[in-house]
Design brief:
Metallo-beta-lactamase, Chain A, Oxidized Rhodanese, domain 1, six-stranded mixed beta sheet, 18 helices, 22 strands, Metallo-B-lactamas, metal ion binding, sulfur dioxygenase activity, Beta-lactamase
Length: 469
C-alpha cells in the first residue's frame, strides 16, 4: 500500500493518492488532472474510485475531468446531491482498492454532505483518516459556509459538527494518521497548524476544538473570531456541484496570443479586466493603465477569487513570458475559466510600441524613514490579526480583502503611505486604488517587515498573533 499527499501550497490544499496492488483511489483531486494521470501510468495501476469529501468552496476539484479521462466513478458521502452521475455512499459503506478498504464515515457540520474516509490496511488495521474540512490540524472546518443551502444557523451547524467529531472521530485509535484537505493559509479555518500530517492522538491533545468540555463551549469557541468567507466561495461550490468546462477547453481558449495592436480594442469589446501577474517590482515601474496587479509568485489564485469575485468575468492577461499556461491553470483552480487571451510579448511589447503606460510611486523603508512624520497618514492593508500584533502608531488598518468597501472613502487630496507585510498585498491594493483614480499615495517596498528594520518608528506593543485569533 502507498499513500501520497499531493500538497499545493498556494491553495494550502491536500489531495491524496492511494495505491494497493494494481488499483488506485484519489481523494479531493485538484483541477488539473495530468499529474494524477502520470502517476497512474508510472505505477501501472487503474484508478478505481475518485472520492470527494464534500462540495469544496475554496477550489474547483478535478473530479469531473478525472472521471471522464479514466472512467472511474465519483463517490460522495450521504446526502450529497451533485448534478452529475456519482455514487452516493451510505454511512459505514466499504469500498475496496486492491487489498485495502476505505470506510465511509459521514461527518456533517462543515457542510451536510461532509464525509471522512477511513483507510483500513491489508491486515485489517484502521490506519488513516482523510478528513476533508471536518478536521484540520489545530482546527476544524468553519460551520458558517453551508447556512444558505441548509436553512440552518451557524450555531446549528457547529453543533452538528461537534456530534460528528464526538461520535465518528474521537473514538478512533490515537495512532491513526490524520490527512486533512487544507493547512495553514486556507480560509476554511482560522487556527490551522503549519504541519500537513499528524496523528489523531496528538490532535486530541493539541487541537483546541477537540478539547472543549461540552457542546456549548465547542460552538462558542469554533465560531469566535470567524471572519467573512471570501465571496467567490459560493461560486466554487456551484461549479463543484453542478459541473464545469473541461480544463482542456479552458486552456485552449485562454492560450490565445493577442497582439499589441489588438489588445486595447479587444479589452473594450469584451469588457475584460486586464490582470497583470508580474511581480510587484516589475509592475510598479510600468504597466498598462487600469490593469490590476496580482503577482503569480504569491497566493495568486485565492487573491484573484477574493478581489475579482465573479468567476465568469472575462480576463485578459499580462504575464511574464512563458508563464501563461501556469497562470491559466492556477486561475482555473478557483473557477476563473473565462480567460480570453494574453498580451503577446508581454508588457515589453506594449512599452516598445510607445503605448501609454502608468506607474506606482514606490520607496524603500529607509526613504520612508526619512519622509515619515507624526502627521503622516499611513494605511496598513494587512489582516486585522497582523495589525493587532504590531503596527505603526496611528496607522489605519484597511485590510486588502475589504478594499471594495473602503476604496470609496479614500480622500485623494491627502497624501498617504501604503504598506502590507512584505509588498505583495500593498502592490495589489496600489493597482486597485490607481484604477479608481486614486494616485496621491506612496507604496512602501518590503512592507512592515522592512519598516521594522529601520528602528525609527513608534510602533504599538507587540502582541503574539496567536493570542489575537
Amino acid at each position: 500500500m502507498k499513500v501520497e499527499q499531493i500538497y499545493t501550497g498556494c491553495l494550502a490544499q491536500g489531495a491524496y493518492y492511494i495505491v494497493s496492488e494494481n488499483e488506485a483511489a484519489i481523494i479531493d483531486p485538484l483541477r488539473e488532472v495530468k499529474p494524477y494521470l502520470d502517476r497512474l501510468e508510472k505505477d501501472n495501476v487503474t484508478l478505481k474510485y475518485i472520492f470527494e469529501t464534500h462540495f469544496h468552496a475554496d477550489f474547483v476539484s478535478g473530479h469531473l475531468d478525472l472521471s471522464k479521462k479514466t472512467g472511474a466513478p465519483i463517490i460522495y458521502g450521504p446526502t450529497a446531491k451533485p448534478e452529475f452521475e456519482a455514487i452516493i455512499a451510505e454511512d459505514h459503506q466499504i469500498f475496496e482498492i486492491g487489498n485495502v478498504k476505505i470506510k465511509v464515515l459521514h461527518t456533517p457540520g462543515h457542510t451536510m454532505e461532509s464525509t471522512t474516509y477511513l483507510l483500513i490496511d491489508e491486515n485489517g488495521t484502521e490506519t488513516a483518516i482523510f478528513t476533508g474540512d471536518t478536521l484540520f490540524l489545530g482546527d476544524v472546518g468553519r460551520p458558517d459556509l453551508a447556512q444558505k443551502a441548509t436553512n440552518l444557523t451557524q450555531e446549528d451547524l457547529a453543533g452538528i459538527l461537534y456530534d460528528s467529531l464526538q461520535s465518528k472521530i474521537i473514538p478512533l485509535d490515537d495512532s491513526i494518521t490524520v490527512y486533512p484537505a487544507h493547512g495553514a493559509g486556507s480560509a476554511c479555518g482560522k487556527n490551522m497548524q503549519k504541519e500537513t500530517v499528524d496523528t489523531l492522538g496528538n490532535q486530541k491533545k493539541t487541537n483546541y476544538a477537540l478539547n472543549q468540555p461540552d457542546k456549548e463551549s465547542f460552538i462558542r469557541e469554533v465560531l469566535d473570531g470567524l471572519t467573512a468567507p471570501p465571496k467567490y466561495f459560493g461560486m466554487n461550490v456551484a461549479l463543484n456541484k453542478g459541473g464545469y468546462e473541461s480544463l482542456d477547453t479552458v486552456m485552449n481558449k485562454g492560450l490565445t496570443p493577442i497582439s499589441v495592436d489588438d489588445f486595447e480594442s479587444f479589452a473594450e469589446e469584451t469588457g475584460a479586466l486586464i490582470l497583470d501577474t508580474r511581480g510587484a517590482a516589475e509592475f510598479h515601474r510600468g504597466f498598462i493603465p487600469n490593469s490590476i496587479n496580482i503577482g503569480l509568485k504569491g497566493d495568486f489564485a485565492p487573491w484573484v477569487g477574493t478581489l475579482i469575485i465573479d468567476v465568469k468575468h472575462p480576463l485578459l492577461l499580462v504575464t511574464d513570458e512563458g508563464t501563461e499556461e501556469e497562470v491559466i491553470t492556477r486561475l482555473s483552480r478557483v473557477g476563473f475559466d473565462n480567460v480570453v487571451g494574453y498580451l503577446d510579448g508581454g508588457f515589453k511589447s506594449w512599452k516598445n510600441s510607445n503605448n501609454e503606460t502608468d506607474e506606482i510611486k514606490r520607496i524603500s523603508p529607509a526613504e520612508f524613514a526619512e519622509q515619515f512624520t507624526k502627521d503622516a497618514t499611513v494605511i496598513d492593508v494587512r489582516k486585522l490579526t497582523e495589525y493587532s500584533a504590531e503596527h505603526i502608531d496611528n496607522a489605519y488598518n484597511k485590510p486588502l480583502d475589504t478594499i471594495s468597501d473602503w476604496v470609496k472613502s479614500i480622500d485623494d487630496s491627502e497624501h498617504f503611505f501604503l504598506h502590507c507585510a512584505g509588498g505583495y498585498r500593498s502592490m495589489i491594493a496600489a493597482s486597485i486604488l490607481n484604477s479608481h483614480g486614486i494616485r496621491n499615495f506612496t507604496e512602501i517596498e518590503g512592507g512592515f517587515n522592512g519598516i521594522k528594520k529601520t528602528e525609527k518608528f513608534p510602533t504599538s506593543d507587540f502582541v503574539c498573533q496567536s493570542k489575537t485569533l
